[in-house]
Amino acid sequence: MIAxxxxxxxxxxxxxxxxxxxxxxxxxxxxxxxxxxxxCNRKDTIDYIPGVKAIEPTDLMxxxxxxxxxxxLHQIIYKSFDEVKxxxxxxxxxxxxLESETISALHQKQxxxxxxxxxxxxxxxxxxxxxLWSESDCTQWxxxxxxxxxxxxxxxxxxxxxxxxxxxxxHGLWLSGVSFVWVLRQDIVDSRxxxxxxxxxxxxIKDRGLIVTWCTQIAVMSHPSVGGFLxxxxxxxxxxxxxxxxxxxxxxxxxxxxxxRKLVVNDWKIGINLCDEKSITMKEVADKINRLMSGKSAxxxxxxxxxxxxxxxxxxxxxxxxxxxxxxxxxDLEVKIHKKRGLATLSQLP
Length: 350
Known about the structure:
This protein is of the alpha/beta class. It is 42% helix and 11% strand. It has 14 helices and 9 strands. α12 packs across α13.
């Protein structure tokens, strides 16, 4: 709206994956085909979105499963994606090679550039605080653990889990026998009340488990003793996990985390689902943790995640796709600015 008013170039920067962007972008197709809106309940595979071969309805963003689609949040989504279609350029925090078909299809509609991952290549060496929350230093504890033996568990800064799921995860961590660092925010279950853990849990795991309210995530994940990541599948966490060559145990909670899981598990083969059914059990949690951390399954996941990491590294290298895309965007941006200035000058002529 502001760009239009002042005749400015309009650049839209999308911080999530291209898959999520294009699903929202083509919301009208989901609606007309009966895969979105409260009166639509089709469960068959979605195969009509440009640049997306196939996605199951269960892998759509959580907001597309809501029965009430008239909330303020839904109105913001509708308005945002109506307006983004007037943008001169779209920048996406992803890598072309990881979502090439999706990005190419978007580019046919509007100039779209994959410029991710949005962090410097040496960011693990210059670790700084990423929030105003007090952060625990886990380094000394991690130094006492063997290489690749520790599971890092975090559900990010916003996602909530149910008290029942939290209890099953806690029991599963205990049953697995694996060492772990678990980030447990005070509001992990509900912002109005504190969570609770099984009676005696902290005493039972004190030799192999460290529970903190917050930490510098990249400092923990890049430590040699950490060998896996139980994550809510937030896009920043996924990118950081890949950069640290960690296989992912996926427990998406809402929003884009659900399609993120689809890419991680189904497409890139660098992670596994924490639970295959709607409800989780301590036994499944323990079994999945052990699959992630040891054995042939773990070896295969680590091999695949290293390949995807090389894709990220190559993309932001001097001659990489993201570097080239960003440089091309700058050139095209300069041309667009000159054109707009020229038109503005012409409009002032008598």
